[in-house]
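Sample intake sheet
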Amino acid sequence: MFEPRSYPVAEIAIGLDNRAQEFTQEGDIVAIRAPGIGIGLAEAKLWLWILIDGFELYKYDELINPVIEPFDATGAYDPPASYTKFDRRRYCVPLARLNQVLTIDLNRARDTADEYQPFYSLDQDNHLWLTARTPLAAEGLIFDKVLGDYI
């Protein structure tokens, strides 16, 4: 028997600083989870949280994958056993693109001392979400750095 396809809403965290250039750059998708959990104070300052939908369940796991290079130094294709795995994220949500669908204050978002979350309102005491928002459509919002195009 076939299982029906599932297109769940997911909560994603977007990196906001470039302090660790080799690991996480601004806009990188650093975490994905089921919505509605709330966040800690540190998460509110370091990551921008948004809701997205439009992907099948299996696709969400891929969004936190690192960059994998299937070519060797000469540009020839390498078999899977010799893939080079980098410590950088493959998928990102460029803040300029996000700003087209959700008005955000880029200066506040980049300020690691500010708990700025434009998609949600936060309870100042426990940092649980106070508002429920309509998810953003993932299509055309998420950029694949390897393919150089939006998915």
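Comment: Residues 10-150 form one domain. Strands lie at 10-15, 29-33, 47-53, 66-69, 84-89, 91-92, 136-137, 143-144, 149-150.
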